[in-house]
Structure formats: structure tokens, C-alpha cells
Design brief:
Mean pLDDT: 89
Largest sheet: 5 strands, mixed
Low-confidence stretches: 17-22
Number of domains: 2
Number of helices: 17
Oligomer: single chain
Strand order of the largest sheet: 1-5-3-4-2
């Protein structure tokens, strides 16, 4: 996990997080409500029809005094806030808002913690199994109001809803995607983000807690798999489509993608050292901030060339790269301002593709 000193502000990362309802028809936002008991929901979680992201269960778990207060509220018959779930294409329910509350019910009913309620002598230090049958029933029969977001809701709308209704710790868009598209794709991002190759190439400066590291790998996968022609100016939608595609790739497809990605990390490290994916000039000693737009073009671009060729022509690549990075105003703007705009994404990819062709010709791997 990064220390606060290691985490940097990222340059060239134009976000879609201010997007509002208006980019899609309002009638496409389909939400229904259901009433279920705690017992019923926990049974569905055990069966796998309700999905709770283990990353969040581990990293953002409530302290036991707060969990105890929730159970106390239930025993006192205090109504709970509503829960939000998103239905995926497989018919599973992804917990959007209420993860900590459901995790608390699951842990308590499974006798994984004792209540910390010093002002309630009849409840303090008791596990679920220690409660009277009457109180056990009160927990399991507690009625939960669920709002379910339909699977047909557009990806962008889903993320907007997710962002608006989440009442717990604020989540980044990548954390939301990690919940909504769990499967081989999210496991791939997690595995690649933990490799020494990735950590060294990025200078260990990407925030792991907010999944900024996985977001950058998601961007690599998007431009490598879907390609520039599929980019329409909505980065959130582009990254979501990529995770859906990755979940269908199969083991061999993901293994090939992993090999391409790791080769790119080696290539960028060999050519640029600690300055990889950062604006810099020849001979510069101080390391600049990480630039997400440079990451897009350089991580994707150098994934197509064999490592021995890149190493052999590293000097030649640097000679054509520095004028592009420091003298081409169009390129500089394309990695600095409005970086998600289609014209700027296309410009920076076009310029770097010209550069790679000049240095490597048609010698792709």
C-alpha cells in the first residue's frame, strides 16, 4: 500500500466525474423496489446471487462498535435506510449502497463478532448464537427495502446513480467499476497492479486505495483491446466496455494481454527509466508527476514491439520522442488539457504512432 508521501497527483487525467443526467434518455433509468428480510438476503449472498466486492469488505470494513450500533438499531426496530443494488447481465445483484450494513449482518449472523454495547447489559459481548430465539428472529426477520437498478440502464447512468446514492466512504469511478464488473477482468487488473514490473515502471506513485493503479491498467487494456476507433469521448463508458469484453476473453486471451502489458512495462522502463510516463527533458534529474495521457500512448504503443528491438533502438526512440514532448505544441496540449476529447486523444496517438513507425518500421511483435 502506498504511503501518503508516495502518492502523487496525476497529470493528464481528464475525468468524466462531473457528467450529469442528460446524456441519455431519462426513461432509460429503470429502478424497481423490493422488500426482503435479512435472512433472505444473506441466503442469496451465500448462493452468489448477491455480489459483495471482497476488496471493499477487506479495505473499508466498519469498526465493531459501529457494527454493534446497527444490530442494536435492528433489535430496537428502528427502520434502516434503503439499500441500492445494480442487476448485471447475469441476473446477479451488485451491492451499490449498503455494503457495510450487509457485511455487518453477515458477520454477526455467522458469529464473527460480539456486540460492543456497554450501555446494554443484556446485549453487551454477546454473539448472535448467544441471543434469545426471540432476538435472533428479530435480526433475521428485519425487513430491508431494496432499490434495484435494472441491467438495461446505460453504463454511464449506472455510474452516475452509483455516485449519487452511495452513503458510505466516497468511491472513485474505478472502485465503482470494480464492483459492477467483477470477474476475470477485475482480477486481471488487481494481479497486474501488484507486479514489480508495473510498480517499478510507475515509480510506485499510483494510489492503490482509490484503485488509481488499476484504472491506468484498465486504460491500457481499453486502447489495446477496443482500439482508438472505438473511443467516442466518454472514458467511463470506454473503460466499462473494456471490462465487459475482458470478462469474455477467456484464459488464453488474458494471458496474451498480460504478456503484452508486461512487455510494455519493461520497454518503457528500459527507454525512460524513472521518467517513464512523465514529461521530462534529456538529462533531467528530478522526476515529474505521472501523466495519464502519456501512459495511454506509450504503454499501448510499446506493447507492440519486441523487447530486444526496443532495447537496441532506445537511443533512437529518445531522440525523436523529446522534440515531440517538448516542442510540438499540439502534442503538449493533447496530453495536458481536455485530454479525454476525441480530437486530442486521436492527435496524441497519431503522433506517437508516426514516431514508432519511424524508429521501428513494421517490426511489431
Amino acid at each position: 500500500m502506498n504511503t501518503p508521501e508516495e502518492v502523487e497527483i496525476i497529470e493528464g487525467l481528464d475525468t468524466d466525474e462531473d457528467a450529469s443526467f442528460g446524456d441519455y434518455p431519462i426513461d432509460t433509468v429503470l429502478i424497481r423496489n423490493e422488500n426482503r428480510t435479512v435472512h433472505d438476503v444473506l441466503r442469496r449472498i451465500e448462493k452468489g446471487s448477491f455480489v459483495m466486492d471482497p476488496d471493499f469488505q477487506r479495505d473499508f470494513i466498519w469498526k465493531e462498535d459501529k457494527q454493534s450500533k446497527l444490530i442494536e438499531s435492528v433489535l430496537m426496530r428502528i427502520p434502516l435506510p434503503v439499500f441500492y443494488l445494480a442487476e448485471n447481465s447475469k441476473g446477479q445483484m451488485i451491492v451499490v449502497d449498503g455494503l457495510q450494513r450487509l457485511s455487518t449482518f453477515q458477520r454477526f449472523v455467522n458469529n464473527e463478532f460480539s456486540l460492543k454495547l456497554p450501555d446494554q447489559s443484556e446485549l453487551n459481548n454477546k454473539k448472535f448464537q448467544d441471543l434469545s430465539p426471540k432476538l435472533q428472529n428479530r435480526v433475521e426477520d428485519c425487513n430491508l427495502i431494496l432499490y434495484v437498478i435494472d441491467a438495461k440502464v446505460p453504463a454511464q447512468a449506472l455510474l452516475d446513480i452509483f455516485e449519487r446514492v452511495n452513503s458510505g466512504l466516497p468511491l472513485t469511478r474505478q472502485q465503482m467499476r470494480n464492483c459492477l464488473y467483477m470477474g476475470p477482468a477485475t482480477r486481471f487488473l488487481k494481479a497486474e497492479a501488484s507486479t514489480s514490473l508495473f510498480l517499478e515502471a510507475t515509480g510506485r506513485s499510483l494510489d492503490q486505495a482509490t484503485m488509481r493503479d488499476r484504472e491506468l491498467i484498465n486504460r491500457f487494456c481499453a486502447f489495446r483491446i477496443l482500439g482508438l476507433k472505438e473511443y467516442r469521448g466518454d472514458m467511463d463508458d470506454f473503460l466499462a466496455q473494456t471490462l465487459e469484453r475482458m470478462n469474455e476473453l477467456g484464459t488464453s486471451g488474458l494471458e496474451k494481454l498480460s504478456a503484452n502489458f508486461r512487455s510494455s512495462m519493461k520497454n518503457n522502463r528500459v527507454v525512460f527509466g524513472k521518467h517513464a510516463f512523465r514529461k521530462h527533458s534529456p538529462g533531467q534529474s528530478a522526476r515529474s508527476v505521472f501523466n495519464a495521457s502519456l501512459w495511454d500512448v506509450m504503454s499501448t504503443g510499446l506493447s507492440f514491439y519486441p523487447e530486444h528491438l526496443v532495447e537496441a533502438r532506445a537511443d533512437e526512440l529518445r531522440k525523436v520522442f523529446y522534440p515531440l514532448l517538448n516542442q510540438d505544441n499540439g502534442f503538449i496540449e493533447s496530453i495536458s488539457l481536455g485530454t479525454n476529447q476525441v480530437n486530442r486523444v486521436k492527435y496524441r496517438f497519431a503522433k506517437t504512432q508516426e514516431m514508432f513507425k519511424e524508429v521501428f518500421g513494421d517490426h511489431t511483435s
